[in-house]
């Protein structure tokens, strides 16, 4: 009888996922609960799905919310439902492999929330070909702690990408920084993409040495904006768009129109409490339609 029932259920019906302790407060200052987080991910999932579908997830787990410690977990947690899609990846050849959760279904996302996963972080390559990125990512970290500095830096990086005819997309990190993603066609491996990102960021930083830096040493960065290309290395991650961050006000890593990238923008204005009511259009709607051939840009960057 059970099988017959499952057969007649409409295919689009989301799998029911029970959230334990939904009243547990994760953000005490705002009173947001684990249940609020689950409802947010349920509602936003159509927007999040393209960035987690077929991608292995690094899990930011904060089982006690702002009141406790967080940890990153790569191995599929015990307690995920049977049948959760996974993918084994060996980071070093011959080394121990990790059995990652593969995203893409609402049931997986909500099961992760149930285990206290506040945000999912993603690699630039799909699980089918994890060493073949389909985006380049730049992580802009303002050492001043001022979002305004990250916004100014992001516009400098955009100009450099425009000069290479590369379409780029910006989002708040949810912290004080900005992430810039450039969608690419699968081709170059993570090492080549990282090489491109490193040399481009070094060039942009050299053009604005008072504002921008690629210094490895934190002390040497001073109050400048660090242009981090290393998120492009194989196995490295960035928080997925539309994820909530475990910070004051529960900010959402929010895709922006380039016209919104201004020093006056306050990234915490996009948060768990108001995000759905804002009914924002999707500034990244053309992200995957805009995949570009990186080879051409690599050649042009080398020539210039
Ligand atoms: P911020 O605006 O505060 O910089 P962020 O998400 O960019 O926010 P970063 O510290 O710059 O934070 O890290 C960039 C990305 O690197 C993160 O989004 C995350 O995916 C990954 N990351 C950072 N720290 C860790 C960690 N300890 N373990 C695993 N991944 C991490
Ligand atoms: Mn950052």
Characterization of the model:
There is one protein chain. This protein is of the alpha+beta class and 304 residues long. It is built from 8 helices and 14 strands. A hairpin with a 6-residue loop joins strand 5 and strand 6. The longest helix is centred in the N-terminal third of the chain and has 19 residues, at 34-52. The model is unreliable at 1-10 (pLDDT under 50). Manganese (II) ion (MN) binds next to strand 8.
Gross geometry: globular
Question: Strand fraction band?
Answer: 15-25%
Question: Compounds present?
Answer: adenosine-5'-triphosphate, manganese (II) ion
Helix and strand element order:
HEEHEEEEHEEHEEHEHEEEHH
Overall mean pLDDT score?
A: 94
Uncertain residue ranges: 1-10
Rg computed from alpha carbons, rounded to a whole number of angstroms = 20 Å
Give the N-terminus to C-terminus distance in angstroms.
68 Å
Total beta strand runs = 14
* Broad structural category: alpha+beta
Number of helices: 8
Q: Main sheet, how many strands, which sense, barrel?
A: 6 strands, antiparallel
Helix content: 25-40%
Secondary structure layout:
Elements: H1 2-8, E1 25-27, E2 32-33, H2 34-52, E3 56-61, E4 71-73, E5 86-90, E6 97-102, H3 106-114, E7 117-122, E8 135-142, H4 147-163, E9 169-172, E10 178-183, H5 190-207, E11 212-213, H6 218-221, E12 225-228, E13 238-239, E14 255-256, H7 275-278, H8 294-303
Parallel strand pairs: 11-12
Antiparallel strand pairs: 1-2, 3-4, 3-6, 3-7, 5-6, 7-13, 8-10, 8-12, 9-10, 9-14
Bound molecules: adenosine-5'-triphosphate and manganese (II) ion.
Manganese (II) ion binds near residues 139 and 177.
């Amino acid at each position: 009888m059970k099988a017959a029932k499952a057969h007649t259920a409409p295919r689009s019906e989301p799998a029911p996922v029970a959230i334990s302790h939904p009243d547990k407060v994760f953000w005490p200052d705002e009173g947001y609960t684990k249940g609020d987080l689950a409802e947010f991910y349920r509602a936003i999932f159509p927007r999040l799905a393209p960035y987690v579908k077929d991608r292995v997830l690094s899990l930011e787990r904060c089982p006690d919310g702002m009141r406790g410690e967080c940890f990153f977990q790569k191995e599929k947690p015990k307690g995920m439902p049977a049948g959760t899609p996974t993918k084994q990846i060996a980071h070093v050849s011959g080394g121990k492999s990790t059995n990652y959760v593969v995203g893409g279904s609402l049931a997986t996302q909500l099961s992760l929330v149930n285990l206290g996963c506040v945000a999912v972080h993603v690699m630039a390559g799909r699980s089918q070909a994890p060493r073949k990125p389909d985006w380049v990512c730049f992580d802009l970290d303002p050492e001043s702690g001022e979002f305004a500095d990250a916004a100014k830096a992001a516009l400098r990086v955009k100009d450099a990408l425009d000069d290479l005819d590369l379409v780029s997309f910006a989002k708040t990190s949810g912290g004080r920084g900005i992430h810039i993603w450039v969608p690419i066609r699968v081709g170059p491996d993570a090492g080549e993409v990282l090489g491109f990102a490193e040399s481009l960021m070094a060039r942009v930083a050299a053009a604005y040495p008072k504002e921008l830096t690629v210094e490895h040493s934190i002390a040497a960065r001073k109050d400048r904006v660090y242009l981090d290309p290393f998120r492009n290395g194989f196995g490295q991650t960035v928080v997925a768009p539309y994820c909530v961050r475990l910070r004051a006000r529960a900010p959402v890593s929010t895709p922006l129109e380039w016209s919104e990238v201004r020093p006056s923008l306050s990234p915490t204005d996009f948060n768990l409490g108001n995000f759905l009511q804002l009914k924002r259009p999707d500034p990244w709607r053309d992200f995957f339609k805009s995949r570009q051939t990186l080879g051409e840009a690599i050649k042009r960057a080398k020539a210039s």
